[in-house]
Amino acid sequence: MSLFDFLRSRPKPSASIAKERLRIIVAQERAERAGPDYLPLLRRELLEVIRKYVNVNPDAVEVHVERDGSQEVLEMSVALPRNEPNR
Amino acid sequence: MTETIVITSGKGGVGKTTTSASFAVGLARQGRKTAVIDFDVGLRNLDLIMGCERRVVFDFVNVIQGDCTLKQALIRDKRHDNLYVLAASQTRDKDALTHEGVERVLDELRDQGFDYVVCDSPAGIEKGAHLAMYFADRAIVVVNPEVSSVRDSDRILGLLASKTRRAERDQPAVGQHLLLTRYDPARVAGGDMLSVDDVNEILGIEILGVIPESQGVLSASNAGVPVILDEQSSAGQAYADAVARLLGEQRPMRFLNAPKKGLLNRMFGGG
User: Is the ipTM of this complex over 0.90?
Assistant: First the structure.
């Protein structure tokens, strides 16, 4: 660090950005690993079927497995686009 | 009892082979009969780092395919007579390593009374990496304080918990340790590098050791002398500490703080 460094404004330290990004991606990937391994394929096929009828975004379909006591619940949600006229 | 330790990482170039060589030497120096095996079929390099490249006659695949005995393929270290190296094959056939073959070699090492077998994994998550970790009792995951390395390490931690013999047989889980390498305390202090605590917090795994970025590592590989034998270098000392911790000794972490700079240095931004 040189004598004049304090005159420049320091941007947010890159390490804290790295930490934040890693925290999110690691949590997401761990959650995916914990679920059954057919989920990604199921999600993709669902998306294909839905797209035959409604033009949705690739990330509009979410598939989760929730544990509720001894039961496992397969939860699916599809976000439909707004103002889409009926075909 | 023989303990099998895999040195793994997912990402390449983070220091797996350097770590395998230094841990194998460190364990041997603590009086443990140790073998270190290069699982990187087609890209043999452990022999160079160990300084025995000119003494390789037979390799791991030769043993598995029955071209020679295990005894013929084990290269005894010139500096430590309880340390042996098993070189990787230079074949291009990636399927040369088989599940049964690796198991047979590990069983034979156990029968020969080895205390530790160190498995130097190739990068990636393909067959060689899978076989290197499959039979492990413990794993040392080598990680650099850098986003892609940390993410890949987490992927490897997931595989260790599911795709190993211990996991498949519902035995106690593979012991997991993190070894942080190429650590630069000055950059951490400047906010430009993830700290030990950051990595520990993200991955949630105990840190076995921190190896500082050091000139000694390159000099050691140039000379074919594992860096743990360079007692002058910070990396060598940090490896010795990490091996002692692996064997259950309590040692404080060293080299986590940058050396203090002099006033002139600070004013004019040297180094």
Answer: no
